[in-house]
Amino acid sequence: RPRVLSGIQPTADSFHFGNYLGATRQWVDLQRDHQPFFFIADLHAITVEHDPKVLRERTLRAAAQLLAMGIDPARSAIFVQSHVPEHAQLAWVLNCLTGFGEARRMTQFKDKSAKGGEGAASVGLFTYPILQAADILLYRPHYVPVGEDQRQHLELTRDLAQRFNSRYKKTFRLPEPYILKATGKIADLQDPTKKMSKSGSAPNGIIEMLDDPARSAKKIRSAVTDSGTDIRFDPEGKPGVSNLLTIYSSLTGESIPALEEQYAGRMYGDLKKDLADVVVGFVTPFRDRTLELLDNQDHLLQVLAQGAETAGSVAESTLRDVYQRIGFVAPV
Ligand code: TYM
């Protein structure tokens, strides 16, 4: 079975609709006929200032949410990145293979360091995409299911894999990004030309999966729509309405043309009211299930330990190959 790998940062109390529809829902779907590795990227979470107690909590909340949405530990290795030390170890090797200018071209560093200026950003934030490349290459996956915003990091990953393979010996598989056209970029509800984002969106622009469902309903009802009145899928001309149709379609399985037909001649308010109900129907059981899982932390830790063991044996064998090929003397 082809392998898939992906990760998510524990940098918020809740995943949002962009994370779910853009990425983690595909994780759940792909686990059926792939060999999956999914992890919580706590090493990445410390590239910006953080509170240790909050990070610990959010890591467990992330694990509970992944299980609640259907990641099945019997099929998937689900683990915490820092439990598998090879991630940091391979990252060092890849750091030494990456050009400074090449790292500099990564646009997320520019975006994320924009506020305090580049001088205030950590070196970890700068080398973040190289750690991500290590995360991926360790497991030699065929596919990496992510949102559109990760495409550039995937390209760097492939470049580094190719460079290592040609400089030393063929060691890494060149992974393919698995990015869905329909949901690869879920937009901010208040500013639909931007992506929904935990750091960049205003509170009303983002639907959090663990938020009070009534509040999420209200956010949908007050989403920014476009000028005009017709309910039509046109991401360029009508980004607000199109985003709502995308969310609607992906939560219900109804196609966009079917929704356009259903709402022909009706008002934006009708669409928003119906979508608000759909959202409440979806997040309510998800939230209950997550809170239930969070009540049994021993079970969560057990699942994560088992995942780290599975992942660790794969990671260990890849790193051994890498160390040997770059000329490190193996310990006896
Ligand atoms: P993170 O934690 O920011 O986001 C997790 C996943 O959610 C996707 N996503 C979106 N998709 C569609 N629309 C949106 N508005 C939206 N917002 C977020 C992201 O693309 C991502 O797939 N660097 C990664 C974590 C990571 C990783 C990895 C991923 C670390 N190592 C190795 C894959 C492989 C990140 O920050 O994701």
Jot down its keywords:
binds tryptophanyl-5'AMP; globular; mainly alpha; 332 residues; 3-stranded parallel β-sheet; 52% helix
Question: How many DSSP H or I helices?
Answer: 13
Which hetero ligands occur in this complex?
A: tryptophanyl-5'AMP
Rg, alpha carbons: 21 Å
- Largest sheet, if any? 3 strands, parallel
Give me the count of strands.
5
Question: Taking all residues together, what is the mean pLDDT?
Answer: 96
Low-confidence stretches: none
Name the strands of the widest sheet in spatial order: 1-2-3
Series of secondary-structure elements, N-terminal to C-terminal: EHEHHEHHHHEHEHHHHH
Quaternary state reads single chain
Strand content range: 5-15%
Helical amount among residues, as a percent range? 40-55%
Shape type? globular
Provide the structure class.
Answer: mainly alpha
Measured between the Cα atoms of the first and last residue, the distance is 34 Å
Function: Catalyzes the attachment of tryptophan to tRNA(Trp).
EC number: 6.1.1.2
Organism: Nocardioides humi
Motif ('KMSKS' region): 195-199
